[in-house]
Amino acid sequence: MSDGAQLSRREFAAFGWLPFLHPHHIRLAGARFRIIRNGRSKRRYLRIHGNEETARLVLERHMELHEGIAYIIESQVRNTQVDGLKLDPNRMFSRIGAEASLKNLNRDAPPDQMRRALHTLDAGREHLVRALTPPRGGLLIAVHNNSEGYSVNSEVPISDQTSLRQPAQPHAFLLCTDPADFEVLKSSPYNVVLQQQGPKQDDGSFSRLAAARGIRYVNLEVHLGERERQREMLDWVESKLP
Ligand SMILES: [Zn+2]
Predict the structure, then answer these.
(1) pLDDT digits (tens, 9 = 90+) for 62-103
(2) How far does residue 222's CA lie from ligand 1's centre (Å)?
(3) How much distance in Å is there from the Cα of 218 to the middle of ligand 1?
(4) Cα torsion at 186, 188, 192, 195 (round to 10°)?
(5) Cα(18) to centroid of ligand 1, in Å?
(6) Which CATH architecture group holds 25-240?
């Protein structure tokens, strides 16, 4: 976004209080996230794919009614840019995952450009990860939308435990990294999978990072456009998880 600096100045004029302690944005390479704060809570929220419009609408509304900090990517498209190369932003949380995504999306990129992109990500990754990591005892909830190619059936073979209460709705499901959260979530009427141990392969997604670092993380997936279903499931998670 070219008017980013100007926007920041306007916001600075409007909310002049401690702008450096409460930034309105955070970025890693071309992935720029708007930060929404509401009150004090250990809840953190993430919308990382720019083309998942239903998730954005649901999360923005959610933040009007619930406390916590939300990070919403400012983009309308799925992939982001790093040093002139395309990258899936939910593959940038490890070097190995980012490298695979960069190679996949930029078949003819010269090795030098690839190395530069990976260096940019290495240099900035921990800053974003620290912001997204909830405080001790807190929870990060990521909201996603999918379409025909991806559903809970893709996750079942690589999950530690599963509870499929809505087999006719495979696109709507919850993925969690904490066994205690799974025990609560499996009492819901929804599809739920636990991925605390496996899969072994690090694809650079936040769910792998969360599992590796012991971060309490819940990923809420709903088919694009099913706003009411996503709202209902987010409300369920919000009200039932500690
Ligand atoms: Zn997504």
Answers:
(1) 999 999 999 999 999 999 999 999 999 999 999 999 999 999
(2) 10
(3) 13
(4) -50
(5) 32
(6) 3-Layer(aba) Sandwich (3.40)
